């Protein structure tokens, strides 16, 4: 998709239309924190529901779990987060701004593997950066920064227990492996899905809702026999490609980036990122990792609980390997909005070219005059009863109502006029083309279901 020329206008549109608002706005806001309005909630639910239908509800081996945000802190010790979930942070002493060292190396020294450098060597490279964001630079010494959010449980100060807000939903799945195996199908492959909030004390959140400290994850953990993991890794990559295609992304908007071995996370045997060409540049949209048996092995050793799978055919015991496709709902929503935000220069209008499955409202029912409201309400009620998301708008000029529905992504409008009362005929106006079609009132639901619901 072409870049949005005026990104501030785009963000302001989303605020004015009710997709997203700055959080705590009446108190001056909270940096990089956003609330979702009605349209934002509807769009997010539609994305989440499509993800669930695509990856979970259509697969007999897939099941859901909802684990807690607060877990026993031993979980994060076993998972490696207390030791490894850190970024190297450096501060510009002149303007007090802080930066992630890995981001600076990616920008200024992309060929250098900074992870293998000593502290002095890192400082040497950083000293070569004399100007950053139009500001002079004097670097402090880099420091490690843990991304976990600490909190406390208990009411007596001396007896409070240190806990952490979960930085990912995955660990809640791993520690429930035995429960999930026992209560689902007791065989592999076993796919466990979870939707939930995670929290990361990011050093440099930003780019609107792309990177925030509080976000929703859509995660799958696929438990497999070890010799199946490589094939499943590639199969899931192909499945994600199809998922993104159905969401309406153009081929040139997405690229696949395989991580080099030295760039892998502490738990990963292989990782690939699907990146989207956001207005600010390429950014991670969906990650997929082959986690091997790292997680079950660590939790088994640290907890003393055997997390092996017993093959009923051979009697062999082994730790399953895990493939993890993971995505953030907030940044996926941002990518969808950027991809679908269009300007029609011929008709001088903006419109949100969302696929039918994602449109917050599939239909807007628009009575031309007040005297047609009773019939409009009847049609709206019929649509709602058939589980077709619809809105009823009775005021304003028809042109302004069309424009508003176009820009919030409503797939088509139904106009009610004198012909509707006399001959039971309505006019359908399509969002993307503005073309119009007449239809009998009793054919509306059938037309929508046959042509759009199962597209």
Automatic annotation (TrEMBL):
Q: Where is the Aminoacyl-transfer RNA synthetases class-II family profile domain?
A: 109-367
Q: What is its EC number?
A: 6.1.1.14
Q: Where are the transmembrane segments?
A: none
GO BP annotation list: glycyl-tRNA aminoacylation
Cellular component GO terms, alphabetical: cytoplasm
InterPro entries, from UniProt? aa-tRNA-synt_IIb (IPR002314), aa-tRNA-synth_II (IPR006195), aa-tRNA-synth_II/BPL/LPL (IPR045864), Anticodon-bd (IPR004154), Anticodon-bd_dom_sf (IPR036621), Gly-tRNA_synthase/POLG2 (IPR027031), GlyRS-like_core (IPR033731), tRNA-synt_gly (IPR002315)
Which UniProt keywords are present, listed alphabetically?
A: Aminoacyl-tRNA synthetase, ATP-binding, Cytoplasm, Ligase, Nucleotide-binding, Protein biosynthesis
Please verify whether the record's keywords include Cytoplasm. Answer: yes
- What does the record give under GO molecular function? ATP binding; glycine-tRNA ligase activity
Q: Name the family.
A: Belongs to the class-II aminoacyl-tRNA synthetase family.
PANTHER family, sorted: DNA POLYMERASE SUBUNIT GAMMA-2, MITOCHONDRIAL, GLYCYL-TRNA SYNTHETASE/DNA POLYMERASE SUBUNIT GAMMA-2
Spell out the protein name for this chain.
glycine--tRNA ligase
């Amino acid at each position: 998709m072409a870049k949005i020329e005026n990104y501030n206008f785009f963000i302001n549109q989303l605020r004015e239309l009710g997709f997203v608002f700055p959080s705590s706005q009446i108190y001056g806001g909270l940096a990089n924190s956003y609330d979702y309005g009605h349209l934002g909630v509807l769009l997010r639910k539609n994305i989440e529901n499509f993800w669930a239908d695509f990856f979970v509800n259509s697969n007999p081996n897939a099941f859901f779990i909802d684990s807690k945000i607060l877990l026993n802190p031993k979980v994060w010790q076993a998972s490696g987060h207390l030791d490894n979930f850190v970024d190297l942070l450096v501060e510009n002493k002149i303007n007090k701004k802080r930066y992630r060292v890995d981001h600076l190396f990616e920008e200024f020294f992309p060929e250098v593997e900074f992870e293998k450098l000593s502290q002095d060597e890192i400082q040497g490279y950083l000293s070569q950066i004399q100007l950053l964001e139009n500001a002079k630079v004097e670097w402090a010494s880099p420091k490690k920064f843990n991304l976990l959010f600490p909190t406390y449980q208990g009411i007596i100060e001396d007896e409070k227990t240190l806990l952490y807000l979960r930085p990912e939903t995955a660990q809640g799945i791993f520690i429930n492996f035995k429960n999930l195996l026992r209560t689902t199908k007791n065989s592999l492959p076993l796919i466990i899905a979870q939707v939930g909030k995670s929290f990361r004390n990011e050093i440099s959140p930003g780019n609107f809702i792309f990177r925030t400290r509080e976000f929703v994850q859509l995660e799958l953990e696929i438990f497999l026999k070890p010799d199946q993991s490589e094939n499943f890794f590639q199969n899931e990559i192909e499945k994600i490609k199809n998922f993104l295609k159905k969401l309406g992304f153009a081929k040139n908007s997405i690229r696949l980036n395989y991580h080099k071995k030295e760039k892998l996370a502490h738990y990963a045997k292989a990782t690939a990122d699907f990146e989207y060409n956001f207005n600010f540049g390429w950014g991670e949209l969906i990650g997929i990792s082959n986690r091997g048996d790292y997680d079950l092995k660590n939790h088994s050793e640290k907890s003393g609980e055997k997390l092996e799978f017993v093959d009923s055919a051979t009697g062999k015991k082994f730790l399953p390997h895990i493939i993890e496709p993971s995505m953030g709902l907030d940044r996926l929503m941002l990518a969808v909005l950027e991809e679908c935000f269009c300007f029609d220069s011929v008709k001088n209008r903006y419109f949100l070219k969302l696929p039918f499955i994602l449109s917050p409202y599939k239909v807007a029912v628009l009575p031309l005059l007040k005297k047609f409201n009773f019939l409009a309400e009847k049609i709206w009620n019929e649509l709602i009863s058939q589980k077709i998301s619809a809105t009823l708008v009775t005021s304003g000029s028809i042109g302004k109502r069309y424009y508003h529905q176009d820009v919030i992504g409503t797939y088509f409008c139904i106009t009610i006029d004198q012909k509707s009362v006399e001959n039971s005929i309505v006019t359908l106006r399509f969002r993307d083309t503005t073309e119009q079609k007449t239809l009998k009132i009793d054919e509306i639901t059938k037309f929508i279901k046959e042509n759009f619901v199962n597209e």
